[in-house]
Amino acid sequence: MMMNVTMSAGGQVVPFDAPASILTFESEITQVDDNGDIHFQMSCTDAEVGDSTNAPPEVRQVLEAQMQNLVGLGGTMVMDSRGNVKESNFSLPETADPTMREHFDRVSQSIDRLSTPFPEEAVGMGARWQIDHALKVNGIELTQTAIYELVSLDNNVATLNMTVEQQAPPQQLESPGLPPGATVTLNSMQARGEGQVTIRLDRLMPEIGTMSLQSNTDMSIVPEGMAQAMPMTSTTMMQMEWQSQ
Description:
There is one protein chain. The chain is mainly beta. It folds into two domains: 97 residues, no CATH class; 124 residues. It has two helices and 13 strands. A hairpin with a 5-residue loop joins strand 3 and strand 4. The longest helix is centred in the middle third of the chain and has 15 residues. The radius of gyration is 19 Å and the shape is globular. The relative contact order is 0.14.
């Protein structure tokens, strides 16, 4: 997973290119219900920081230490026979710092994106269908619309193209990284992404997949004791790749 962020606060633009995060997860099916629901658990067994020529060495060292805190963490999921995630339980200790929580939220959302729900109706080549979700990502309540298209089906292996759009209405946010008493208001958030995933229909996880997502966020921050809000905008480019063994 790679992420590039350009942030503007009080008229100052601050670009930031984060090194790639390389995570390894192991999954194990624990139960299959009569209705086809699959219960399984996942845990992070390895976390590495990829090569980057843009990130300063001190940033890389901090990120490496934070990534190692993810090793051993995991959770449980329940997926129905069509690939819909019915339950997802990933949790962190209460002592986890805000940065680690942000990393973990991003990882858990990436895991949820591994699911590729199929419609109830039978589908063939060229079929398209839409899935709508209400999500909470990094403390932001949003709606997501995903459109899937079946572009290949051969020997029980399906390849799908997908597009994703996310929108969030204005809302108050809680940000543990800000000074006490400061208030944060989200004015708008829009995101759009696309990708492709290849699935073996007799396997739990996709064989391989890619996803790129760009989000634009507009917020206002009011420090305690001040009347004037400070505008803050950010553009985030995120690219994810995953592969099963």
